[in-house]
Amino acid sequence: MASVGRVTPQQMHFAEPLPLQSGARLAGYTLVYETYGKMNADRRNAVLVCHALNASHHVAGLDADGQPGWWDNLVGPGKPLDTTRFFVIGVNNPGSCFGSTGPMHPDPATGQPYGADFPVVTVEDWVDAQARLLDRLGIDQLAAVLGGSLGGMQALAWTLRYPQRVRHCIAVATAPNLTAQNIAFNEVARRAIVTDPDFHGGHFYRHGVVPARGLRVARMLGHITYLSDDSMEAKFGRRLRDDALAYTTQDIEFQIESYLRHQGEKFAGYFDANTYLLITRALDYFDPARAHGGDLAAAFAPARASFLLVSFTTDWRFAPARSREIVKALVDNRHRVSYAEIDAPHGHDAFLLDDARYHEVMRAYFGNVARECGASLAPAGGAGGAA
Amino acid sequence: MASVGRVTPQQMHFAEPLPLQSGARLAGYTLVYETYGKMNADRRNAVLVCHALNASHHVAGLDADGQPGWWDNLVGPGKPLDTTRFFVIGVNNPGSCFGSTGPMHPDPATGQPYGADFPVVTVEDWVDAQARLLDRLGIDQLAAVLGGSLGGMQALAWTLRYPQRVRHCIAVATAPNLTAQNIAFNEVARRAIVTDPDFHGGHFYRHGVVPARGLRVARMLGHITYLSDDSMEAKFGRRLRDDALAYTTQDIEFQIESYLRHQGEKFAGYFDANTYLLITRALDYFDPARAHGGDLAAAFAPARASFLLVSFTTDWRFAPARSREIVKALVDNRHRVSYAEIDAPHGHDAFLLDDARYHEVMRAYFGNVARECGASLAPAGGAGGAA
User: Fold this and answer.
1) Could you tell me the CA-to-CA distances from A137 to A46, A164, A318, B348 in Å, in that order?
2) Is the pTM higher than 0.90?
3) Residues in chain A within 8 Å Cβ distance of B220
4) Which of A146, A272, B84, B253 could lock onto A97 through a cystine, CB 3.0 to 4.6 A?
């Protein structure tokens, strides 16, 4: 299938500080974003795609380095989220490390990189930042907001924070909050980073180092939780790297070790340690039911959107049972909700993969969204568009 | 129920080097062990208890510091493994850090602590070392060998390595080998330790430091895998440490974080980093089917023991399905095998806990073992006995 082709990220600066859930404010900041497809004349065909931990505004097409977007198999001309019908926006969240203002950028108060002083940002803060971007783009209402994992949490938060601005919410492989076990994994990763002597309390930039040891361990651990036990077994099993056992405690013996070390090494080469802390904390904090004494149905009462929830059978990080909690809360409110539980072997990572049944569900749902907003008509001008 | 009371560990030195699976040899070494109960005149009532990662020879009773043994709820007078009927032996494996020769002891070749040069030891090597101890104690044949987790692997290995010397094998919460996911968790923990600058390539003793950061992370991660998702949720859930959110990435926000950090801190204060590497590697390497092209039934053909396998429904580290693989291999050989799958909420840790149904199974099985070896008769003298 066709790609949206070469895309160039755009930037938008916001001089007005962003008030945050913590009570702090993020000073003037810049968001980096990409768009694909064209806005219709009535501006009703916009779809916002929210990213998860290790992703960015680069959702589809090829960037300047020729790298495909992280959801390129889903988003493009003729793809389930069809850019010949929709105007699709990918935006990098503040606190991330892919271009939008983050801990590696100068704190206007000091002129030095924010480092550990970058304010703690939440899913709701990101949604607020995204809403401001839509204001600037002249989009009053989204045809749909879409995300997987932490991105799914943002999609859900949109329907509660800006109920009138979202017609459809598509939340994939997500949860109404993290379990104790989820938080525990995040905490182990954070401790690995924070206790790396090269972390320097989060101000490593001025020392010309990065806490690579901690980032490697964090990523290795993360990878285990993204994959299912079965898919790891199928892909690596107990296969040795070499023909015979070497009897070593520090060198690589099994292929799975080699794979994890490689993933850790790659990640430590580009990901920011403070961003890792911020984003895992945003995951920990997300919990729309908290303000309602744990009553998720009460939390979802304000929503006006229609919903599609998708989960994957072997996802033990955000298990189907967690998606079903959301479905139940929506049904309790008589909100419109569709739910697909996809039998897929790949664990949490399945939401990024090109599974036929999963993509058929997405295609059918977006087909309905397109018909509803007249997006199957020929597009007619609109703001920006990088395709 | 009564305890075996105060126990004093004993030591046995072995001047003859131990040939290892790797081809290397462990030079003269010392084993620390405890015994409970009395050997019968016919020496047929001995039960060997094998320990897992973070345990020792101190299985039952109270040590000099008044600390109870790690399986004190199971082993004692009137307990499921009844020390009024059996002569029970707990032995610390070489490479461990609780008294037997390990990486913190002097390498006779250099006079300096072995450190990372301590030879890689396997489950089979430990069984060989245990067999030599039994030789010295004058025990030709064990009434039973018992272990949980990595200890269960040793119990299984006994039946293959010394088929004539084991009448019963009780293997709890164990597996015929580690899965790729199990190995992956071990590898993350090892990398955390090895990349801690205070590890000094495994020779930290001479620097007067310990790689505490790495050990903490390793232990925190281990703890997650010992508990079930459900029991963590029940015990900690999303409860905050304080009343309100503090919005912090480095300080403790949730109770689960506080618990894990505490566990990590405690562990780093007493456990040896090289031992952690050695023992997790022994786990990785155990795989009796490997020499038989993956055919576990072929691997168990030499066994002559009767078996009891026990697993726990919520144990995702060594899931019931793994125990069933062993049961199938035993049945395929027409070996005598009993199997209990205990519905318990506590995950892998359940094997250490006092679950009524679990302990009833153990009590019933050991009752049969006792009757079979005449151990219900009054004991009559025998070697040692610390009770």
Assistant:
1) 10, 17, 33, 53
2) yes
3) 184, 187-188, 191
4) A272
